[in-house]
Fold this sequence. Notes:
- By secondary structure, the protein is mainly beta.
- Helices cover 9% and strands 37% of the residues.
- It contains 1 helix and 11 strands.
- The strands form 2 sheets. The protein has a 6-stranded antiparallel beta sheet, with no helix packed on it. Strands 4-3-5-6-9 form a 5-stranded mixed beta sheet, with helices on one face.
- Strand 5 (74-79) and strand 6 form a beta hairpin.
- It is globular, with a radius of gyration of 15 Å.
Amino acid sequence: MTDPEPKTTMASRQELLLKIYGKQTGMIPKATLVVESGPDKGVRFQVAAWESTIGWGEGNNFPLTDKTVSTDHAVIRCYEKGCVIVDQDSKNGTRVNGKEIFHKLLKDKDQITIGSTLLRFRDPKHR
Length: 127
């Protein structure tokens, strides 16, 4: 019997993301998230410079009222290669264009499903 793979820590995950996507930028992107369906339909969020948190808990940059969304569900971080969404070990997972992800480099018009909420990533820099 082999030992199970050790759990990764948030610090080791951040190191992995830095290797894949490059340094985090301090530049404020022009990217936005638009809620296309769910309880918050029509709401638009501006992506912050370093990181933007998504969830229904207090203190999130993108607070959602959908109770199928985890308190601290996901985070969007901006790197040299672009904005990346990272699932924060949420209960229901995060999907981009229908595929469950741990992390994913976002492109203009990508669909993000968090709980029963559908968001659209808009990035005028990559249209």
